[in-house]
Amino acid sequence: MSHDSEPAEHAHAHPTGATYLKVAAILTLITVIEVWAYYIPALVSSPLFNPSLLIMSAAKFAIVVLFYMHLKYDHKLFKALFTGPLIVATGTIFALLFLFAKISL
Amino acid sequence: MASHAAAASHGAVAGHDDGHVHHHHTTTGLDHRKIAIWAFIGSECMLFASLISTYLIYKGKSLVGPFPHTEYVDAAGKVFKPILDIPVTSASTFVLLMSSLAMVLALQAVQLKGQPLPAGAGWWTRAQRSSQLWLGVTALLGAMFLGFQAYEFTSFVREGLTLKTNLFGSTFFTLTGFHGAHVTVGVLWLMSLLWIDRTRGLTPKDELVVDICALYWHFVDVVWIAIFTLIYLIQ
User: Fold this and answer.
1) Is the terminal CB of chain A with fewer CB neighbours within 10 Å at N or C?
2) Using N-to-C axis directions, what is the helix angle for B131-158 and B207-227, rounded to 10°?
């Protein structure tokens, strides 16, 4: 059962059940903050409202991918297979929004 | 054990009856099934990016209501309230997030199978070893999410929003419908794993099979995280 020949980057164990529960609590907390902010008119009218929501959403996205999908602990090829298309997909969304004048510099 | 779990998590090893664990004989040393699911998930990113882009491009371009966040009065004086039901969707979002938690616990339960329980183990430690429990909970929560979506879709149709009503209806139903179809596939996949677990029992050798399903399920979750913010919360 020896894995001495494995690269050091492979030597991580999965998170424990307690870590998974903490991650779930953080995801729930961020969701509660997002929904709470939606019902505060002063916040909704603020120019920081949309960027804040996007940052919180991106944080939730990253937490799920890193901890629940184990990408933080996984092989770099899997990281490349996911982050490559994700970058292209995000770039496509922004490019189309620029093209259709939904956002501008 | 820790090194075994870590190595197996990469899909880089395969168990054998003689108790030894070997690297896969592939060019990368990684299991092709796991490479395939990550490549598939990458392609799914592109699919959902196109659907989200379409929604965002047509956002605010509908000529007639109902509208997502604002009230609309038609020519006959009929008032259409903002159609999105944030409390209901928040609940369904919470359900899907918890299903992801149940999914990782199901995977962990499969990894821990066969290991002796520590002396004086409590109910939580015992529960963590039950893959059937967590697979069942994940499938149930996924089905609950679909129930929320069915409720939302039918209430929207009753309020006058269909696929053909306006650009919002077309892009909204297409995007969330595609996501719902993915959730449906996931629930069926989970139920098939649960059936296998109940009939022959899943073992640590089946870890990769469960892991692949888990990756798909979590991807469906992260897509919803994006949809919830972009469609429901940003006005």
Assistant:
1) C
2) 30
